[in-house]
Structure formats: structure tokens, C-alpha cells
Amino acid sequence: MSEKVKLAPSILSADFASLGAAVEEVTQYGADYIHVDVMDGHFVPPITIGHETVKAIRKHTSVPLDVHLMIESPERQVDNFAQAGANIITVHVEACTHLHRLVARIKELGVKAGVSLNPSTPLEAVTEILPFLDLVLVMTVNPGYGGQAFIGEMLDKIARLRSLMDERKIGAELEVDGGINADIAPRVVQAGGTVIVAGSAIFNAREPVAQTMKRMRNAIGGVS
Length: 224
Ligand code: DX5
Ligand code: ZN
Description:
Layout: E1 6-9, H1 19-28, E2 34-39, H2 51-58, E3 65-70, H3 78-84, E4 88-92, H4 99-108, E5 112-117, E6 135-139, H5 154-167, E7 173-177, H6 185-191, E8 195-198, H7 209-220
Parallel strand pairs: 1-8, 2-3, 3-4, 4-5, 5-6, 6-7, 7-8
Helix pairs in contact: 2-3, 5-6
Bound molecules: D-xylitol-5-phosphate and zinc ion.
């Protein structure tokens, strides 16, 4: 794969009182996607962002909104998020009974469809749906919180998924999410990740976002 690896800052670690400004800032510094973590208090304990917030931040950027639904019954919400301006909607395989139908619905809404796997979920859970996807998201932390430690064993899972996708000529993006900083990012890219999500590594109080964006971009290779 010679295409540039994409950087997707997660606004979960941004100041929720100034989300518009946060989105504008990462847009200015070359974000390829804006990763939006939606949590419902059921699939994962916290409650974060709903579709009204997605609609509000939509006005602050033209960068694609990559909406990661960590929610139960996602089929009840995809229309709302599509209307709010999501460009990619990713649902969790663990939350879906009729995954193929839901993926078809997301595409029907004119949105790219992604499916995510928790760290303990085997790759087999997505092998049948892979040909229908625009994106597959491998979680490298247990979803629910920003700032957790990267689970090193997931590098092998990413590499196995990469081989499987190459073997079957699946052109979907392979996104990796959770605990990625500039030290870990090169290993994720090496394993085959094509979209790198980073929350706390981008939005932290110690350094300006201009600096952290640059550091992450260098770590994944290539300038925006
Ligand atoms: C975890 C979220 C991730 C996470 C990324 O539930 O899906 O997007 O917040 O943040 P960091 O990079 O801090 O792990
Ligand atoms: Zn996420």
C-alpha cells in the first residue's frame, strides 16, 4: 500500500466546552479525518456526544467526520448521524445482530460504513462482512475512555488482519484506535494500519496542538 497513512485526531480528549475551536485547530494542522467518539452509557459506561453535537461541529470543518459509535442498537441511530453530517459511521460488531443489513443501510444513507472489533473479539467476527466495508477498526484499548495504555498484543492482530485483507484484495481502510502516541504509531503503521486515531496524544495540556499534530504526522510517515 503506497497511499499516505491518515491521521484522525479524536476529539474525545479535547475541551468539550470548545469543540468547534478544537475541530478547527486540528483541521488547520492537517487532520485527514476528525474522529468522533459516541458513547451511550450502555455499550460502554460513559455518555459523550450525540448527533446534535456532530451537527454543530460539522459547521467548523470540511474534513470528513469519522463517527465511532460505541452504542447498543446502533441501527436506531445511524440515520440521525448521517443527517448530522457524518462521512464515515463505524459500528461495533459486538453490538449488532444483523450487521450486514446495518452496513447496507449506512451505505444507502450515502455514508461510508465501518465495523469495529473490541480487543477480545476474534478477527473471525468480521471475515464475512469485510468485502462490504469501507473501513475496519481494530480497537487497541477497551473502548470507553481516552488516555488508556495501548495493548501491545494487538499489533499481531492488526498484522493478521492486514494479510487477510491483502490476500482477499479487500481495499477497506484499516483504522487503529486507542493508546497510540508518537512512539507506538510507527509500529501500528508497520503492522498495516492505514488510519491512525489519536486522542490524548494530540489534545494534551503539555504541548500545543500544532506541535502534537506535527509529531504524530512525522511518526506515521509523510507530511499532510
Ligand atoms: C476509546 C475511543 C478512542 C480513544 C482515543 O474508547 O474509541 O477513540 O478515545 O483516545 P486515546 O488516543 O487517548 O486512546
Ligand atoms: Zn474511537
